[in-house]
Write the structure tokens for this entry.
Amino acid sequence: QVQLVESGGGLVQAGGSLRLSCAASGSIVSFTDMAWYRQGPGKQRDVVAIISVTDRTYLADSVKGRFTISRDNAKKTAYLQMNSLKPEDTAVYYCKIPKSWANPRDYWGQGTQVTVSS
């Protein structure tokens, strides 16, 4: 069983920064991709960033140049560094471990709220 716990959300002014953390439990976490999604008010949940087990990364166009995803396998933790935040970044941010050869299903965290004021 894999459990994910996000932290680091909060209220920040536009132009500010936040660092989200996703702490995972489970012996297979080191061998899987990890991802961040977000869901804004009245919007669907969209992918923000993905990091592979070999540290290859993907960033959505809307966050390129501002957000960075990283991971620490020893700590079983993924991070999302968010800089130059904009009001449109306001959302609940979720950590996900996707279904794969190592995982029989997707695993999601409970989410952490990020609010960016103008």
Notes: The mean pLDDT is 95. The radius of gyration is 14 Å. The chain has no helices and eleven strands.
